[in-house]
Design goal:
The protein has about 450 residues and is an all-alpha fold. It has helices at about 5-30, 30-40, 40-75, 75-90, 105-125, 140-165, 190, 195-210, 225-240, 245-275, 280-310, 310-330, 350-380, 385-395, 400-415, 415-420, 420-435; strands spanning about 335, 340. About 75% of the residues lie in helices and about 0% in strands. A hairpin with a 2-residue loop joins β1 and β2. The radius of gyration is 21 Å and the shape is globular.
């Protein structure tokens, strides 16, 4: 018998299975490896910006439409299966990023396929959140799931650093051993294996999700073909009604900006550390461990705060802190820390960046968990997947703006520190729009 507790655990396993794509590929391992692959931090940041931005645009365009189909048909699992296959194939394709013998188009296409699969699958699993417990408990359920996901990301990162990835100088992992499976350091197999690792991890740990999570049956569910025909008119009607839903529309716009800013921080944090501070991938991995640990702890704590104070309070506090942190990051370089000159061999820039990275992890975990529960409070119960599709749209409609703005600003200024300043603007815009959001959403419309 599949109990309510098992359904919650199964739902948490999606976060556990999927989070390594963010931690290992988008942020801490593969993104910095792009600098080595292309031979330039500025060039890698530019290419990564365009690639992530265009993949986000695809997610933005199709998420609401797919969500409308799922709500009308009452089927989410078939979509999650399809997008899971995309996740696995895309992640595995990164193995072919062989230095000196690679197709940049193939690598970025593989990355985009995997990222699109992850984002679409997340839209459909997030829409299951209100079915897992009463409203007064969904903050804790969401926060605990996000924390569980961070632990999965941490374990895979430790596997990479301790067992698979070697230092370029010593040829040994952080445990002082040769990479497992005879991985060749000279062709960077020890780093490229991160793609297959993420793919295998997802495949194994989605088994509990598919075994324990069940969709509630809808009495008015339509055949998928019928749902497909009616999805666009229904979505169009929902979009036309948005201006009358002031709290919902304000939240979607606000989250559009602050989540794009947060994704920009995650996407370019490792590249920034590699290019500006000259960090090795191992040092970035340690940075990642710190950020993931603080993210897990504060996602869990944020879930408790969410249930007690409401998700809006949690979101506001974390956006304010993140804004201050990013401003601080801009003023850290190899020879300056917050405007104070330091010797070339000083560890102070590294320590400052570690501290700010811990804060980024803490704020990111709590912010994303609270945003997920806020969306449940704003959405119509009968259009939950469609509204989470709009939530994905709001997170991705400008998802190309932060990466592309960073890519363009970096290219024009030829300076990585200047290149990340668009993130500050996005956070401030998100904070302003939050003032129009009601914690419990708008009154439900008639009919």
């Amino acid at each position: 018998m599949i109990t309510a507790r098992k359904r919650i655990w199964g739902w948490w396993f999606f976060d556990w299975a999927s989070q390594p794509y963010n931690s290992l590929l988008i942020t801490f391992i593969f993104a910095p490896f792009m600098k080595d692959l292309l031979g330039s931090g500025t060039g890698a940041q530019t290419v990564w910006g365009y690639g992530v931005g265009l993949a986000g645009l695809v997610v933005a365009l199709f998420s609401p439409f797919l969500g409308a189909i799922a709500d009308r048909s009452g089927r989410r699992m078939p979509f999650i299966w399809v997008f899971s296959i995309m996740y696995v194939l895309g992640a595995w394709g990164l193995w072919y990023a062989v230095p000196g013998n690679y197709s940049l188009m193939l690598i970025m296409l593989s990355f985009a396929i995997g990222m699109i699969g992850m984002e679409f699958a997340t839209t459909f699993t997030n829409a299951m959140l209100p079915d897992l417990g009463p409203r007064e408990q969904i903050g804790k359920i969401s926060g605990s799931g996000w924390a569980f996901g961070y632990v999965g990301g941490l374990i895979t990162l430790l596997i990479m650093l301790f067992l698979l990835q070697a230092s370029p100088t010593s040829g040994k992992t952080m445990l002082g051993i040769a990479p497992l499976f005879g991985l060749d350091v000279t062709t960077r197999e020890d780093t490229r294996v991160v793609g297959p690792l993420v793919a295998i991890w997802y495949t194994v740990f989605m088994i509990p999700f598919f075994y324990w999570v069940r969709e509630p049956r809808k009495a008015d569910a339509l055949p998928v073909r019928t749902a497909l025909r009616g999805a666009w008119p229904e979505l169009r009607a929902t979009l036309r009604a948005l201006p009358k839903r002031r709290s919902l529309s304000s939240f979607l716009l606000s989250s559009m900006f602050y989540r794009d800013a947060l994704n920009g921080i995650y996407t370019f944090g490792g590249l920034y550390a590699a290019g500006v501070l000259g960090w090795s991938i191992t040092m970035i991995g340690i940075f990642g461990i710190l950020a993931i640990i603080t993210g897990a702890i504060f996602a869990w704590l944020g879930g408790k705060a969410d249930d007690r104070f409401g998700p809006k309070s949690v979101i506001v506090v974390n956006v304010v802190i993140l804004t201050a942190v990013v401003i601080g990051v801009v003023f850290i370089s190899r020879d300056h820390v917050f405007g104070i000159a330091v010797p070339a061999d000083s560890n102070l820039p590294d320590i400052a960046f570690y501290v700010l990275g811990g804060l980024i992890g803490a704020c990111g975990g709590a912010l994303q968990s609270a945003s997920r529960t806020m969306m449940v409070r704003q959405a119509d119960p009968e259009k939950m997947t469609e509204h989470f599709g709009l939530y994905a749209l709001s997170g991705k409609a400008t998802a190309f703006i932060a990466p592309l703005a960073i890519g363009i600003t970096t290219q024009i200024s030829d300076n990585q520190s200047t290149g990340i300043t668009p993130i500050i603007v996005l956070l401030i815009l998100g904070l302003v729009l939050l003032s129009f959001v009601k914690t419990n959403g708008d009154p439900q419309p008639e009919g």
